[in-house]
Write a structure and sequence with these properties.
The strands form five sheets. The protein has an eleven-stranded parallel beta sheet with strand order 10-11-13-15-16-17-18-19-20-21-22. With 680 residues, it is α/β, with parallel strands linked by helices.
């Protein structure tokens, strides 16, 4: 039976299990008599005795002193529960499951006698439990003892650690009345057993430590599978064999929805339209497809269109609850980081966001790592990415702070909410961030001192056009007109301000009392700025300045008070004639964009002191004639774009640019020169 992977559930009918084990009493007498009558089969009799000894050690039923009908009912119920413990119905509509099962089996290395732990990790609703159940059902016959512990995190919260340990051991040993002594009992009872254990939805490292502490707790060939949303939890227990659960492909998601559509009569056109809408909303998340597919396909066209429009404003409650579990497990600062990303920074450059959030004292590196490990965000091409439903979950958390009065929330991103709060002067001291997309405004909005007067905690203010792309350092050519009117008395509380981005700022300079000590970003593309500030402004935390396409800017300000600046964007400032000599004070500057500054003829000699400069863009500076003589001392320069400039010769030091990787002088107007050899 053991070699076939079958399980034995002994019934001791009117016999003492200890008599079976030791072959004594009436049972022993009968066995001895049979032994004498079978002298020619001594080997077979010994194997029977060994088998009976093993059977007596198994958990089963003792019929003595028990009501026989009740005993039979108990036996039938137990066996049925074992056979039906994981219903196939739970996974019958899970397309793409076979491939995923094979991938998990490969990681389990079932042919090995080593003890192995595997983590199945992914965002809520992605199908971790379904996959674990399917794998469990397929391989369970290969183990002496098996148990699937579903939602074990909830059990820990409800029952406590001791009762959880008792349940764990009781299920594996199939003993209802179990006395145990904590961790010692688990190790003593299971160290010689080949077990298969699935711990589903683990949310606390204490669960792993208390139930599957060390590999020597289990017998050779054992497999422990842990499903979780938290990758750090696996790493903390030394589980680095991790399978990342993935979303449905478009083909799989479409096939999944077909299961629901077949139950209802829909025209081909309605079916295709509804499927496209649901697929776009769910983005491959099985939970969302299941929830929406279960009822939308039974609706009329008018009903499901209305419901889908409702989802754009109010997320589905069941999906929201599942996804929000991951948010609830975050720390205070991690929650702030998550909400800032969900409301403002999705698809933004990671390095830029880290600078802003660090300026808010959020410890963003560790915070972003936590969000990655909990599958709340991903990073692609150095951009922070987030599933639309997770983003909507975060935004709904903010909306719930004040459903009726947007001005009482802490973060505002929806143009109608911002318009309402500023127009009616209902913006409160609770507001920490406002991101207003100008492309959504249909009429001009006044920015007045009164409207912002109570925002003493304002950290982030961004008035932008959705097509602004300055952080690529390549193209900031958007020319959308500003729909914000900055009143003459417009003023902000600067104490908490970290990000100030005002597209189309209409004044010639910043206010004389402008002194935001904690400011990290100052961006005013398409502004009317002529002189950013007079004299020296000491802004030690400032990392970004963007004045691109400011068509009245003639000279840059004195930079000597902003020595931690990293990015300076002056692209499209056509009348700019002079860059202040204090540019060389920017020892941390890594990117300088002067593209299409058509009146600029040269850079100050102090430019050569920019020891951190990696990117310099001068393309389109059609009057630019010469580099400083010591230009080659820019030892960190990696990219130089100088297309269509008026340069005739290169400084002899140019050959010292040892780290240069990208160099472009396309369309330069000057005559050929032997100095161009330095550029090769």
């Amino acid at each position: 039976m053991k070699s076939r992977g079958q399980r034995v559930l002994p019934i001791f009918y009117n016999v003492d299990p200890s008599d079976v084990k030791k072959q004594r009493g009436i049972f022993g007498e009968a066995l001895a008599k049979h032994d004498q009558e079978s002298l020619e089969n001594k080997g077979r009799m010994q194997s029977w005795k060994d088998a009976l000894t093993q059977v007596a050690n198994l958990s089963g039923w003792d019929s003595r002193n028990k009501n026989e009908p009740l005993l039979i009912k108990e036996i039938v119920t137990t066996i049925l529960n074992k056979l039906l413990s994981l219903s196939v119905g739970d996974i019958e509509n899970m397309v793409g499951l076979d491939v995923r099962i094979q991938e998990v089996e490969m990681r389990l290395c079932l042919e090995s006698s080593d003890i192995l732990m595997l983590g199945i990790w992914g965002m809520g609703g992605i199908g971790k439990t379904t996959l674990a159940k399917a794998v469990y059902n397929k391989i369970r016959s290969q183990f002496e003892m098996c148990s699937f512990f579903e939602n074990i995190g909830e059990d820990l919260a409800k029952k406590g650690l001791i009762r959880l340990q008792q349940k764990f051991l009781s299920q594996l040993l199939e003993e209802s009345n179990l006395n145990m002594n904590g961790l010692t009992s688990i190790k003593e009872r299971l160290c010689s057993k080949k077990v298969l254990v699935v711990l589903d939805n683990v949310n606390d490292p204490l669960i792993l430590k208390s139930l599957v502490g060390n590999q020597d707790w289990f017998g050779r060939g054992s497999r422990i599978i842990v499903t979780t949303r938290d990758k750090r939890l696996l790493a903390s227990h030394g589980v680095f064999n991790i399978y990342e659960a993935r979303r449905f492909s478009n083909k799989e998601a479409f096939e999944f929805l077909t299961h629901y559509s077949l139950k209802h009569e829909l025209s081909i056109d309605d079916y295709m339209e509804l499927s496209r809408e649901v697929l776009g909303y769910a983005q491959g998340l099985p939970l969302a497809l299941e929830v929406l597919g279960s009822f939308l396909f039974s609706m009329t066209r008018e009903e499901w269109r209305n419901h889908l429009n409702k989802l754009k404003c109010t997320p589905n409650l069941k999906i929201q609850e599942v996804l929000e579990i991951s948010y609830d497990g975050l720390g205070y600062k991690e929650k702030n980081i998550f909400l800032d990303i969900a409301c403002f920074f999705k698809r933004e450059n990671k390095d830029y966001v880290i600078e802003i959030l660090d300026g808010c004292s959020f410890f963003s590196l560790s915070g972003i790592r936590a969000l990655l490990d909990k599958s709340l965000i991903t990073i692609g091409s150095n951009m922070l990415m987030m599933h639309d439903l997770i983003q909507e979950m975060g935004r709904e958390i903010v909306r719930r702070l004040s459903l009726e009065e947007p001005g009482e929330r802490n973060l505002l991103w929806f143009h109608e909410d911002i318009y309402d709060a500023l127009k009616r002067n209902t913006a409160s001291e609770k507001i920490e961030g406002i991101f207003l997309n100008l492309s959504h405004l249909e009429e001009t909005l006044d920015f007045t001192a009164q409207a912002f007067s109570r925002m003493s905690k304002l950290r982030l203010l961004k008035v932008y056009n959705s097509e602004d792309t300055w952080r690529n350092f390549k193209d900031t050519s958007n020319k959308e007109k500003c729909r914000v009117n900055f009143s003459k008395d417009f003023k902000l509380c600067y104490d908490c301000l970290r990000c100030l981005y005002l597209h189309g700022y209409s004044f010639k300079s910043l206010p004389s009392d402008f002194n935001p000590k904690n400011l990290v970003e100052l961006s005013m593309p398409y502004s009317h700025i002529q002189q950013l500030w007079k004299g020296i402004k000491v802004l030690e935390k400032l990392k970004f300045i963007d004045l691109s396409h400011s068509k009245y800017l003639i000279e840059t300000p004195d930079f000597s008070g902003v020595t931690n600046l990293k990015w300076l964007v002056l692209e499209g400032c056509v009348p700019l004639r002079k860059v202040h000599s204090s540019l060389g004070d920017l020892k941390n500057l890594s990117s300088l964009n002067l593209k299409n500054c058509k009146m600029l003829k040269s850079l100050p000699s102090s430019t050569c002191d920019l020891k951190s400069l990696e990117i310099l863009i001068l393309s389109g500076c059609s009057k630019f004639e010469e580099f400083p003589e010591n230009f080659g001392s820019l030892e960190m320069l990696k990219e130089l774009n100088a297309d269509e400039i008026a340069l005739t010769v290169l400084p002899s030091s140019f050959s010292f640019l040892r780290n240069l990787k990208v160099l472009s002088f396309s369309g330069c107007k000057g005559p050929p020169s032997t100095f161009w050899a330095y550029a090769l």
